[in-house]
Each structure stands twice: as structure tokens, then as C-alpha cells.
Automatic annotation (TrEMBL):
It comes from the Archaea. The keyword Isomerase applies. It is an enzyme of class 5 (isomerase). It holds the Pfam family Glyoxalase_4. This is Methylmalonyl-CoA epimerase. SUPFAM superfamilies: Glyoxalase/Bleomycin resistance protein/Dihydroxybiphenyl dioxygenase. GO terms for molecular function: metal ion binding; methylmalonyl-CoA epimerase activity. Keywords: Isomerase, Metal-binding. Its EC number is 5.1.99.1.
């Protein structure tokens, strides 16, 4: 596994993208609307991304913002095989949010582990399907 990205919940992805680009020289690598959200990936020069999550109407990120305010939402680790990573987590007794990989932003296959089993951290497995 390797670091892929940190997901950050925000109410204004554009403003935060501008700030992070100025602070960290982290330009926009990819932007899309996905699952009712605006999702912006900022590329870090040392590798990996910051993923800015701006919710539309409702959804888990909107609920997170209402409950916790803006900030780190999840940590994502890259893997060559999300299904195998889920099997390993399952064998270790880790509670899964996703029993099987599902489509995620940027066309990747993803799956989440429940924070109750991972020290309070929402963990995402990412299998890049497009070479990114």
C-alpha cells in the first residue's frame, strides 16, 4: 500500500483549492461532479493528492460538515487490488463499510473501512483504473 490522498470536506472547494495552490504549489490535477459532490484533486509535488469534497444537497460529506465542520474526512491508500485489500481487512476483523469495491471519483475502484475499527480514521482503499 502507498499513500494516495487525504480527503478534505469543505463548503467551498474553489476557494480552498486556490489557497492550497498558493500555500503548497498544489495545482488542480482533476475536477469532477461525483455522487452529487464537487470533487477536486490537487497534486502534491512529493506524490499523492489532496481531495477536496464539496457536497451538493445532502449526503455523507454534508452530514460530516454539519456534525464536525470542515476538515480531514478520510485517508486513502493505494492498492493494486481493492478486493484483496478488503479480504485482508475482513480476515483481521476490521469492520467494512463496503463489502465489495465500488466506483469512485476519477474512475477508480474504491472501498471504505469503518473508523470504529481503524482508530477513528475513515480509511479508503483506492485502485487506480486509469493509470493516474
Amino acid at each position: 500500500m502507498e499513500f494516495d490522498h487525504v480527503g478534505i470536506a469543505t463548503r467551498d472547494a474553489g476557494a480552498l483549492a486556490d489557497l492550497f495552490d498558493d500555500l503548497f504549489v498544489a495545482p488542480i490535477a482533476h475536477e469532477e461532479r461525483f455522487d452529487g459532490m464537487r470533487v477536486v484533486f490537487l497534486e502534491l509535488s512529493g506524490g499523492g493528492y489532496l481531495e477536496l469534497l464539496e457536497p451538493g444537497d445532502g449526503g455523507p460529506v454534508a452530514d460530516f460538515l454539519d456534525r464536525s465542520g470542515p476538515g480531514i474526512h478520510h485517508v486513502a491508500l493505494g492498492t493494486e487490488d481493492v478486493a484483496a485489500a478488503l479480504d485482508r481487512a475482513r480476515s483481521l476483523g476490521v469492520e467494512l463499510i463496503d463489502e465489495e469495491p465500488r466506483p469512485g471519483a476519477w474512475g477508480h475502484d474504491v472501498a471504505f473501512l469503518h473508523p470504529r475499527s481503524t482508530g477513528g480514521v475513515l480509511v479508503e482503499f483506492v485502485e487506480r483504473t486509469d493509470g493516474q
